[in-house]
Amino acid sequence: MTATFVDRKLEAKATRLEKQISQLKDKAAKLRRSGKPKAVPDYVFQGHDGKPLKLSQAFGTKKDLIVIHNMGTTCPYCTLWADGFVSLLPHLEDRTAFLLVSQDPVAKQKAFRKSRGWTFRMASSQGTTFFADMGFADKDGNVWPGFTTFRKRGTKVERLSRQFFGPGDDFCSAWHFFDMLDGGTKGWHPKFKY
Prior knowledge:
By secondary structure, the protein is an alpha+beta fold. The protein has helices spanning 8-34, 76-95, 106-116, 130-133, 174-179, and strands at residues 38-40, 44-47, 52-54, 64-69, 97-102, 122-124, 146-153, 156-164. The chain has a domain at 38-164: Glutaredoxin.
């Protein structure tokens, strides 16, 4: 007889809850996708090559685009999420274009990007209303992290959906690993260096 270290009743309850959560996430995703796309202006960002980068140009040859709204070099949480995108990038770019945007000036972005080993494309939205227009900044200029999805129809760019980033979300797996430890995160916060 082999020993078992699994509490089967507890695992069965957790599995049922996880199934319900998965079904609710599917419903939420379908609801977000069911919204009517809204045409948006062709925002002009500052690209890392020193040239203006229009939102429509960020699609490259793709018809879909994910734009990450990043709070910039002062936010260790945004850095945690962005670090995770590096390994996902080839998979994401097989399906869609990908761009990380912050309000930091390009020179600051470039230095930080290099220090982190980030390989995704970045641009500065400094001087634009992009964050506020997409619902990621308030009237006082406070910004939040997350992402917006877009599609391109001819020359028109349409906003499809958005989601915010935050501890415990589905866009950074570290939180889910910590959830399974004794005491969960125990107040853990991301840092720039460990």
